[in-house]
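Annex B. Sample input.
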Amino acid sequence: MILYSVTVNVDADINEEWLSWMQRVHIPKVIATGFFVEHKILKLLTEVENNGVTYSVQYYLDNMDAYNTYANDHAPTLQKEHSLRYEGKFVAFRTLLEVIPNA
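Annex B, continued. Sample output.
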């Protein structure tokens, strides 16, 4: 299983609106692509003083082929929509991890 994790720090003044939009609009669009088997959104509790709020949005996929197709065919449009909507109000970075099964 593959974990595609998007860590986003949003300005405190848009935090509630951003979170609502992510839950109502953006994440459902990502899931609707059909590549993800599960998702979670987590809030960082040990926030540094930067006047922002940090979230980890985690999307789980069955394999790298699913990720590659999503990344090539869907991610650019979805990321652009987010970037235009919240320009200058967030910082994001993405990581790709392999989930190691319990022994």
